[in-house]
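for the writeup, i need someone to sanity check this before i put it in the appendix. the sequnce is what the collaborator sent (i think, or maybe the updated version? ugh). structure was predicted straight from it, no edits. if anything looks off just tell me and ill rerun, i have time this weekend
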Amino acid sequence: MVAYASGKAEKVNIATDLAAQLAAFVAWCREHIRGDEKGEAQLFLDHLFRAFGHAGLREAGAVCEDRVKKDGGGTAFADLVWKPVVLVEMKKRGVDLSKHYRQAFDYWTRLVPGLPPTYADSMRLVTADCLSASGTA
């Protein structure tokens, strides 16, 4: 990775830089995020994208509240879709995430047809609980 400071290109240790950015993100969440899905989801996600080095979630090509057509008619909304990279469906603190696997699966298969989902311990990768003031994950 190359960073530009004072008009000069400088090499940056990617792992160290990312660790510092993620630590700053966690500190920001502890101060500002209270676990309200409706009021904080997009703000949380934009800061998360910035922590990973993007200018923001939109600048990375992600979309919030992407419309998903339901089988029986009607429309649902995926919290964030970054095709074909990730789908994020957020829930408030304390919700049993296992009850929402089907929802995330359906959203992904409808929004990114032909690309089966890959899971990494499902939807508990990042939760508000992981960012609590206690620091426990």
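DSSP finds four helices and five strands in the chain. Residues 18 and 52 are 7 Å apart (CA to CA).
thx in advance!!
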